[in-house]
C-alpha cells in the first residue's frame, strides 16, 4: 500500500493542442484516507473539474508517493485505457518518498 498525493498542473486544449497551465490543484490525497493498494485501480475525475474542461485532450499531473509498505510501481493513465506494454511513472521502495510529473 502507498499514500498518494496528486496535483494537476495544466491541460492540453482541443484548439491546436495548446498547453494551458493552471495553478497546482490537488485532485487526489490519500494521506488522510484510504491508501492505494497493490494491483488496484483508482479513478480520479479530472475533466470538467478544477479548471479542466471536458474537452481537454490531455493533462499534466505531479504525483507523490509516500510510506509504501512494499516495493511497487505506480502507473498513471486515462480511465479506460491501460497502456501496453505497461510502464510505471513512479517506482517506490519501502518507506521512501518519491515525486514525478507525467
| SSE order, one letter for each helix or strand | EEEEEE
Poorly predicted sequence stretches spanning 5 or more consecutive residues: none
Roughly how many Å apart are the termini?
Answer: 21 Å
Name the strands of the widest sheet in spatial order: 2-1-3-6
Total helical elements:
0
Q: Shape, please?
A: globular
SS-derived structural category: mainly beta
Described by strand count, sense and barrel closure, the largest sheet is: 4 strands, antiparallel
Overall number of structural domains: 1
* Portion in beta strands: 35-45%
Gyration radius (Cα, Å) is 14 Å
**E-strand count:** 6
> What level of helicity do the residues show?
under 10%
Q: What is the average of the pLDDT values?
A: 78
Commentary on this structure:
- This protein has 102 residues and is an all-beta fold.
- The chain has one domain.
- Helices cover 0% and strands 39% of the residues.
- It is built from no helices and 6 strands.
- The protein has a 4-stranded antiparallel beta sheet with strand order 2-1-3-6, with no helix packed on it.
- A hairpin with a 6-residue loop joins β1 and β2 (19-29).
- The two termini are 21 Å apart.
- The mean pLDDT is 78.
Short description:
This protein has 102 residues and is mainly β. It contains no helices and six strands.
List keywords for this structure.
single chain, 102 residues, mainly beta, four-stranded antiparallel sheet, two-stranded antiparallel ribbon, 6 strands, 0% helix, globular
What is the fold's blueprint, element by element?
Elements: E1 3-12, E2 19-29, E3 58-66, E4 72-74, E5 90-92, E6 98-101
Antiparallel strand pairs: 1-2, 1-3, 3-6, 4-5
Amino acid at each position: 500500500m502507498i499514500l498518494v498525493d496528486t496535483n494537476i498542473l495544466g491541460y492540453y486544449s482541443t484548439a491546436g493542442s495548446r498547453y494551458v497551465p493552471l495553478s497546482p490543484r490537488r485532485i487526489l490525497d490519500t494521506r488522510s484516507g484510504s491508501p492505494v493498494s497493490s494491483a488496484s485501480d483508482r479513478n480520479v475525475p479530472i475533466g470538467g473539474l478544477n479548471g479542466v474542461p471536458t474537452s481537454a485532450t490531455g493533462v499534466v499531473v505531479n504525483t507523490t508517493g509516500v510510506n509504501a509498505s512494499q516495493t511497487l510501481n505506480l502507473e498513471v493513465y486515462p480511465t479506460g485505457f491501460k497502456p501496453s506494454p505497461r510502464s510505471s511513472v513512479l517506482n517506490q521502495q519501502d518507506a521512501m518518498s518519491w515525486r514525478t510529473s507525467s
